[in-house]
Design goal:
Elements (H helix, E strand, L loop, with lengths): L2 E10 L9 H9 L5 E4 L2 E5 L5 E6 L6 H19 L4 E3 L20 H11 L4 H4 L3 E7 L3 H22 L4 E2 L2 E2 L5 H6 L21 H17 L15 E4 L4 E8 L4 H16 L9 H14 L5 H14 L2 H16 L2 H12 L2 H14 L7
Antiparallel strand pairs: 1-4, 1-5, 1-6, 2-3, 3-4, 6-10, 7-8, 9-10
């Protein structure tokens, strides 16, 4: 199965203050303000917020190792070119960013951003301070699509639990491990169908999915926002892309380094290879499980996560098994959000914590508490 990934990192100055300079970086690397540019064997893309750059592999692959290696070389080249002028951070939200420290991309696609802003107000954390790890999984036929969609759907709360990495908002520990999703699910509340509380309903085929997409389009047209009637407007935790046949998982917090990102990929793909996972599939029950994951990360879902890890390990390829060790440690010791919380409680020093997170990304070594 071919996979593709998208990794969003904030741009920071020496003291980890967010810098809204993605346009300046893209201009310096390409000579223009392109939305997406080739860079060192990968692709760099702008995001809505100018404090974020997105790294994308040059092409999909069946191997996480084949995706990770060139992406990491691209990050190394970025640091070499800019000579420590910028420091990058992963994570689902920048831990200290305030809205006054960022701004909206203003060089293209302004008609889309204007429509979003009119309907939903872009000046909020749910738009300007969220960073996702997106995993794209190919499907080859309708049956393939339905089976994978419905399997990933019931896995979403467990994936949210193990990837939670946003326990801070504007420098404050909030008590929730995944604040990104708390903001994300509210950022388009004027049209609730768009996000649909993150967990989608099961599908039976192309038509059942398209009928839901059309309901979103009808709601947008009623608001005079027909320009947004594209497949990417669906913001559920799992969507279908027809233009590039894949399932796109959108519910995941960005991790602290690429190795951890690809560990999540390995967890997903190995579980898709297994038989019946014996998981809850009732929609209300899944919503409740997702609330638990958002609030506590892995802490309250550890027995089921441990069982899923054993299944994943049994069905993993040798390539995937190399990465799954990271997931095993996260299930045993806590999601990144839980580890960040514990590190901060022991030191009360946000600078130390941010330095640790930036170092993990730069060295590609997953963060683990001693």
């Amino acid at each position: 199965m071919k996979i593709g990934t998208e990794h969003e990192f904030t741009i920071n100055g020496p003291g980890f203050e967010p810098l809204p300079v993605s346009d300046e970086i893209i201009l310096s690397l390409s000579g223009g303000y392109g939305d997406e540019i080739p860079f060192s064997g990968s692709r760099l893309s702008k995001e809505l917020q100018k404090t974020v750059l997105e790294w994308i592999p040059g092409s999909p692959s069946t191997s996480s190792r084949d995706l990770e290696a060139p992406l990491y070389r691209s990050l190394v080249d970025f640091y070499r070119i800019f000579n420590d002028r910028y420091h990058l951070l992963g994570l689902g939200m920048h831990p200290t960013l305030t809205l006054s420290q960022t701004s909206v991309w203003d060089h293209g696609e302004q008609e889309y951003f204007a429509a979003y802003d009119r309907l939903f107000d872009l000046r909020q954390h749910g738009w300007l301070n969220i960073q996702a790890l997106q995993i794209n999984l190919e499907y080859r036929c309708e049956r393939d699509l339905v089976e994978r969609f419905n399997r990933i759907r019931v896995l979403l709360p467990y994936l949210v639990a193990v990837t939670a990495s946003s326990p801070f908002v504007e420098g404050h520990l909030t008590g929730s491990m995944d604040n990104r999703l708390l903001y994300y699910r509210e950022n388009q509340r004027r049209i609730p169908l768009i996000c649909d509380r993150i967990i989608p309903f099961p599908i039976t085929g192309f038509e059942s999915y398209l009928s839901r997409l059309e309901a979103i389009y009808a709601a947008l047209r009623a608001e005079g926002a027909g320009i947004l009637c594209e497949e990417w407007v669906n913001s559920s935790g799992l969507i279908v892309r027809f233009s590039r046949p894949c399932l796109e998982i959108k519910a995941l917090d960005e991790q602290e380094c690429l190795r951890s990102d690809f560990a999540v990929c390995a967890f997903v793909t190995s579980l898709l290879r297994a038989g019946d996972l014996g998981l809850e599939d009732d929609h209300d029950a899944l919503l409740a499980l997702n609330e638990t994951a958002i609030r506590s990360g892995t802490a309250d879902l550890r027995p089921e996560l441990t069982r899923l890890f054993r299944i994943a390990n049994a069905y993993a390829t040798p390539d995937e098994r190399r990465y799954l060790q990271v997931i095993g440690r996260r299930i045993e010791h806590g999601s990144l959000a839980e580890l960040m919380r514990d590190r901060w409680r022991s030191s009360k020093d946000m600078g130390v914590l941010l330095h640790d997170m930036a170092s993990s990304l730069r060295t590609n070594v997953p963060f683990m508490l001693d």
